[in-house]
Amino acid sequence: MTFIAKCGIEELRVFNIALRNIFRHKARSIVSLSMIAFGCVALMFIGGFFENNLYQMREGYINAHIGHLQVFQKGFNKNSAISPYKYLIKDPQVIADAIAKFPEIKSIGFRLQFAGLISTGQSSAPCWVQGVDPRFDRTFKMKDYKDLKDFINHKDVYGIGEVTTGDGLSVDDAFTTIVGIGLADALNVAPGTYVTVMNTTIQGGNNAMDLKVQGILQTASKDFDDIFLRIPLATAQKMLNTHAVQNIVIKLNRTEDTVMVKEKLERLFAKEHFDLEIRTWDDISDFYVKTVKLFDTFHWVMRIVISIAVILGIFNTMNMAVMERFSEIGTIMAMGVKREGILKLFLYEGLLLGLIGGILGVLFGCVFLYFIGGIGIVMPPPPGTTSSWLSQPSIVGDVVVFAFILSIVIGGMSSLVPALKASRLTIVEALRYR
């Protein structure tokens, strides 16, 4: 016990000297701490920026297009390209009533889409017609919100997209449509214009219907806006001559519950003998999954680059500190301090610099992200989209922990080589430098 106590006192003494050395050389310590803190803030900002961007992309796709879960007749996803109408859900309301009991489910909607031809009398274009329930797939008008930040803060307004001009689909008027902005520009149609939509029924006959353009729709996807138009579900069923739907779209209160609800539904379908299959939003959104992988790679590359830059900067500072203190090292070695003690002294200095720099970096980073997240950064439209968006970098817990731990590790790694160099000096070599 006496030996252990002596070792503990010795370690504490070396630690105390290292701490005093940091504050003794203030200018050098400020430079080192600034580099560590800056690296910590940079890592937190990049992590928060990527996290928020992916969150907004995920929620935008879920709410505007695909929902959290989609239910299909078994075999639809494998064979729909060949037989699009063979695998329709015949009794969607029975299924909706069965799954509505789960508290995690926010809303349930039906969809039915088909290829068609839209004509104004002067020009025509191929299109995809999507029948939706106006009460489930809502539209919004950006003019109803003060700015982009006000819209982002009202999460419930996320619907099937923004109506740039005119109004959304009417629950009371079945003979209306909203047209994607790209398709509307190609056909030169505006709200109030009448168009004719032609299609083939599921029995193979021809059908056509005159519809009034209620509004012009813009979503996050340019490809969607260039070819789609939306009509009330009942109208789509009349045009196809069916009461069935293609899929049931489920939106949840929390995206995090997706897998759990899917498992519950699979058990329910097996129990009720429903011949159905379920796909989650990440099964359907291949673009989002690949974007996450791309962003993750970017994030790790930037982490490595920032870490190397900080390590080199602190290494240079610590190396200069060793050279400046050769005579001091020689003196304490002459007083009986062993090489191991010299090594510990400089390692402790590096670790303390990392610890203090990490604490400062986390504090400054949280304050910085709080203000930047509150203000927001207006971003240009990503490739393949048409809408600007507001990035609000957030404080991400695991990124904060990673940045703090990395700061300590960087401090220790940066001081390792200079510490080894100092511990290998002989008393004569050290005392020669003045």
Which strand order spans the largest sheet, edge to edge or round the barrel?
2-3-9-6-8-7
Quaternary = single chain
Secondary structure tally: strands = 13
Which percent bin holds the helix content? Answer: 40-55%
How far apart, in Å, are the first and last alpha carbons? 42 Å
Strand residue content: 15-25%
Structural class: alpha+beta
Mean residue pLDDT = 79
Question: Radius of gyration, Cα only, in angstroms?
Answer: 32 Å
Put simply, the count of helices is 15
| Shape, principal axes of CA atoms | elongated
Poorly predicted regions: 1-7, 154-159
* Major sheet description: 6 strands, mixed, barrel
Succession of helices and strands: HHEHHEEEHEEHEEHEHEHEHHHHEEHH
Features:
434 residues; alpha+beta; 6-stranded mixed β-barrel; 15 helices; disordered N terminus
Describe this protein's structure.
- The chain is of the alpha+beta class and 434 residues long.
- It contains 15 helices and 13 strands.
- A 6-stranded mixed β-barrel has the order 2-3-9-6-8-7. It has a two-stranded antiparallel ribbon with strand order 12-13.
- A hairpin with a 4-residue loop joins strand 2 (105-119) and strand 3.
- Helix 2 packs antiparallel against helix 11 (286-324), helix 2 (26-66) crosses helix 13 and helix 11 packs parallel to helix 14.
- The longest helix has 41 residues, at 26-66.
- It is elongated and about 100 Å long.
- Residues 1-7 and 154-159 have low confidence and may be disordered.
